[in-house]
Amino acid sequence: MPRTKNYLRYVHESTFGVVAASQAGVSIKYLPMRDTKDRFVAVSANETVLFWDLKTRQIINKLTYDVGDTAVASEVSIIECFHGGHPRTNLIAVGYANGHIRVFEYETGMLKTTFTGHRVAITALVFDKDGSRLASGAKDCTIVLWDVVGEKGLFSLRGHKNSISKLAFLYNDEHQKDLLVSSSIDAVATVKFWDLQLQHCFCTLPGHSSGVWSFVLLKNGTRLITGSSGPELKVYSIRFLSDTEKQSASGKVVDGGEYDELDVKSEVEYGLQVKPLGQILRNTIAISNRVRDLTV
């Protein structure tokens, strides 16, 4: 039976000029504005972020790194958007190769604040659910939590051994948990769960042997899928335990108060259970072809 060439259905339609930085790569995010969902995109382009109208194929706005007495123009390394439903709460965070972060109102282009806690390239950005906080990760292996409203840094989280690849907030209102999930390209501590109230890492998933380049939370935060430079995606279940289940988990503590399993500590002290469900073979191509991003 002849092999169907399905790829022939896809043809090049148009070119949009410079869409990447030579040092930092490309970052593209949809901008939900003007009552549209997928018409406008923000694209990194050297030291600038360009706003493209995909329908008219025109640049409608740009965000430029203003060079002042103490600032040096730097390439954009990553961008992240937050849609608050109002022009003043529709935010875009721009991370730069020099470690700076600038937060703009993306409909007006107005600069809200600048954060300068990192010294090297920003590699991960994420807003919380109401846009009041921003978490950033960088090549310095550090995660910083920022108060967007108060325009100040809150605290740093350290524990990874290599560049931070992705961040995501994980909530559970019933159990009043405020957590952050992070991944790194280090070969040992690749995915970590952080309690933001205690500023403490309480669970680490070694998982892949070559570092996690991306992950995604699915089904209201009850599933975690991680990807690396290997050919497989790993799948985990995430579940918050009831008080009864936490007491049952405490029975696994051995003599002397030590935990006999890596995940029992998170179950007993934080009421969170993370279990591997298996893996998905994504391809059989070379190991160097790593996962760049997982999203929904």
UniProtKB/TrEMBL annotation:
<keyword id="KW-0677">Repeat</keyword>
<dbReference type="GO" id="GO:0030490">
    <property type="term" value="P:maturation of SSU-rRNA"/>
</dbReference>
<dbReference type="InterPro" id="IPR019775">
    <property type="entry name" value="WD40_repeat_CS"/>
</dbReference>
<dbReference type="GO" id="GO:0030515">
    <property type="term" value="F:snoRNA binding"/>
</dbReference>
<keyword id="KW-0853">WD repeat</keyword>
<feature type="repeat" description="WD">
    <location>
        <begin position="115"/>
        <end position="148"/>
    </location>
</feature>
<dbReference type="GO" id="GO:0032040">
    <property type="term" value="C:small-subunit processome"/>
</dbReference>
<dbReference type="InterPro" id="IPR015943">
    <property type="entry name" value="WD40/YVTN_repeat-like_dom_sf"/>
</dbReference>
<dbReference type="GO" id="GO:0034388">
    <property type="term" value="C:Pwp2p-containing subcomplex of 90S preribosome"/>
</dbReference>
<dbReference type="InterPro" id="IPR051570">
    <property type="entry name" value="TBC1_cilium_biogenesis"/>
</dbReference>
<dbReference type="Pfam" id="PF25173">
    <property type="entry name" value="Beta-prop_WDR3_1st"/>
</dbReference>
<protein>
    <submittedName>
        <fullName>WD repeat-containing protein 3</fullName>
    </submittedName>
</protein>
<dbReference type="InterPro" id="IPR036322">
    <property type="entry name" value="WD40_repeat_dom_sf"/>
</dbReference>
<dbReference type="InterPro" id="IPR001680">
    <property type="entry name" value="WD40_rpt"/>
</dbReference>
